[in-house]
Write a structure and sequence with these properties.
Blueprint (H helix, E strand, L loop, with lengths): L22 H32 L4 H29 L12 H16 L3 H9 L11 E2 L2 H14 L1 H5 L1 E5 L3 E7 L22 E7 L1 E5 L2 E2 L1 H5 L5 H23 L14 E3 L8 E5 L12 H8 L4 H4 L3 E4 L1 H7 L11 E2 L9 E2 L2 E5 L13 E4 L1 H4 E14 L7 E13 L5 E5 L4
Parallel strand pairs: 2-14, 7-8, 8-16, 9-12
Antiparallel strand pairs: 1-14, 3-4, 5-15, 6-15, 9-13, 10-11, 11-12, 13-16, 14-15
Length: about 425
C-alpha cells in the first residue's frame, strides 16, 4: 500500500461512474480501508508510546496519522459508493411492464421534462383530482421516481437513515401521547377495583416544510434519447436534498425547516423531564478526562434505558470521531472498530456510528456526541409527492428544474436520545 490513497483515488475525486460496480472493485477499495486502519493503529501506538516516554507526541507522527486518516476516509467513501452502485436497482421499467395508467403518466412526464409538453400531464393530474399545476408548484413525478429519490435519501442522509419515518398526505402530522399514563396497581382477587384515572393525552405536531433543489440541464442533454431523464433528476437532487436535510434534522429551527434534536432545551440527565434532551457532562471543559477518558462514553451508554439501548446509535461529526477513534479499553483494544463489510457502519463499543457533519465540534460546553435509539427518538415526516416545475426562461440557454418535496421532523420520544457535554456541569 503506497500511503493508501494511491490505490483508491485522490481526495475529492468522485466515485467512478459505472453502471454497476464489480465485487472485486468494492473489495479492493474496502481492503485499502482496512489495511489503512492497521497502519493507523500502528502509528497511534507509536504516538501513545512517545507521549508516555517524553510527555508529548512527535509532530511527524501526528502529521502521518492525519494523512493516513484522510486516505482511510477516502477509501471508505469509494468502497461505500461502489457498494451502493452495485446494489442500486435499475430505475426505469419497460413500458410493457407497467400498467396503462402508470405508463401514460411516465410518458407524459418525460414529454414535459424533455420538451415542456404539459397538456397531457395536466389532464392526467386533473383526472386524478391532483392540486398540482404549473402555476402552483409543478407536476408530480412518477411514483417510481419518487420512491427512488426517497430510497437514495435514506442511504446518504445520516439522520434519516437511523430515524423513524412517516408518510402523510396533509401538511401536519399530529402524534398523540400520554403525559401521565393510566393509573394501574395490584389488587387481591376478590378486592374492589378502584376506578382508574383517565389518561391525559397531549399531542406533538410535526409540520412539513418545503425543501427544494434546482438542477440545470442543457438542451442537448434533454434531446439525447439515451439519457434516462428520471435517473438524471434523481441523481441531481439527491445530494442537495440530503445535505439540507442532514443540517435540519440536527440543528433546524422548526420554523422554516424541521426541528433538529440539538435545538431542544438540554438539561442534566439527573434533572431530565419530558420535552427536554438529557445530557451527561464530562467534568472537563472542552475535553474528556485525562484519566480513563473512555469511562465517560460508558457512562453515556448507561444513561439510556435498556429498552432504547439495544437499538442505539452514536452520532457525531467526522472530526469528533477522529478523536474518539484513538481511545482504548483497559485491555488495550480500540473502542472504535471498522465496518465488517462495505456499506455497513463502523462501531464504537459495539454500537453503530453515524457520521453527521452538522454535529458541533469538540469545544467547551459543546455537545459533540449523541447516543440513543433515534428510530424511536426522532421522527421524519414526508408528505407524499415530489414535484417538478420546468423553467426554460430564467437561465437561458439552460433549462432549470425546480424540484420540491415537503418534509418535517422533530423529537417524538425525549427519553430515547442523550448527549455528552464537554463541560464541567
Amino acid at each position: 500500500m503506497t500511503e493508501l490513497a494511491s490505490s483508491s483515488a485522490r481526495a475529492g475525486d468522485p466515485v467512478p461512474e459505472t453502471k454497476s460496480a464489480s465485487l472485486s472493485e468494492v473489495d479492493r477499495a474496502f481492503d485499502d480501508f482496512r489495511s489503512g486502519f492497521e497502519v493507523w493503529k500502528t502509528e497511534n501506538d507509536r504516538r501513545l508510546a512517545e507521549i508516555e516516554k517524553r510527555g508529548g507526541a512527535d509532530p511527524l507522527i501526528e502529521e502521518k496519522m492525519a494523512r493516513i486518516d484522510r486516505a482511510m476516509e477516502e477509501s471508505r467513501r469509494i468502497a461505500d459508493g461502489l457498494a451502493l452502485k452495485a446494489a442500486r436497482p435499475r430505475l426505469g421499467l419497460e413500458r410493457s411492464d407497467l400498467s396503462p395508467a402508470v405508463a401514460e403518466h411516465k410518458a407524459a412526464f418525460e414529454g414535459y421534462v424533455r420538451g415542456g409538453a404539459e397538456a397531457t400531464l395536466r389532464r392526467l393530474e386533473e383526472k386524478a383530482l391532483s392540486i398540482g399545476s404549473g402555476m402552483d408548484g409543478g407536476y408530480l413525478v412518477p411514483a417510481e421516481l419518487e420512491r427512488e429519490v426517497m430510497r437514495r435519501l435514506a442511504q446518504i442522509s445520516p439522520i434519516r437513515a437511523i430515524a423513524g419515518n412517516r408518510q402523510v398526505s396533509g401538511a401536519v402530522f399530529n402524534k398523540p401521547y400520554s403525559a401521565t399514563g393510566p393509573s394501574v396497581g395490584w389488587v387481591a382477587e376478590t378486592a374492589a377495583r378502584p376506578q382508574t384515572t383517565s389518561q391525559q393525552l397531549q399531542q406533538l405536531a410535526f409540520p412539513t416544510m418545503e425543501l427544494y433543489a434546482m438542477p440545470a440541464a442543457t438542451g442537448a442533454l434533454l434531446d439525447d434519447a439515451a439519457i434516462d431523464v428520471e435517473q438524471w433528476i434523481a441523481e441531481e437532487v439527491q445530494q442537495a436534498f440530503a445535505e439540507q436535510e442532514g443540517a435540519a434534522f440536527v440543528t433546524g429551527d422548526g420554523v422554516t425547516q424541521p426541528k433538529g434534536f440539538m435545538s431542544y432545551t438540554k438539561v442534566a440527565n439527573t434533572s431530565w423531564t419530558w420535552g427536554n434532551i438529557g445530557y451527561l457532562a464530562t467534568g472537563v471543559a472542552g475535553a474528556l478526562p485525562a484519566s480513563n477518558p473512555s469511562d465517560k462514553l460508558v457512562d453515556l451508554v448507561y444513561t439510556v434505558k435498556a429498552g432504547y439501548r439495544q437499538n442505539a446509535t452514536w452520532v457525531m461529526s467526522r472530526k469528533t470521531l477522529g478523536e474518539i477513534r484513538k481511545l482504548k479499553d483497559s485491555q488495550g483494544i480500540y473502542l472504535w472498530q471498522p465496518p465488517a463489510t462495505p456499506g455497513t457502519p463502523a462501531t464504537l463499543m459495539n454500537f453503530p456510528v453515524a457520521e453527521a457533519e452538522d454535529m458541533p465540534a469538540i469545544a467547551t460546553d459543546a455537545y459533540p456526541i449523541a447516543f440513543g435509539d433515534f428510530r424511536r427518538g426522532y421522527l421524519v415526516v414526508d408528505r407524499l409527492g415530489v414535484r417538478v416545475l420546468r423553467d426554460p426562461f430564467s437561465a437561458k440557454p439552460y433549462v432549470l428544474f425546480y424540484t420540491t418535496k415537503r418534509v418535517g421532523g422533530g423529537v417524538q420520544d425525549f427519553d430515547a436520545i442523550k448527549l455528552l457535554k464537554f463541560g464541567t456541569t
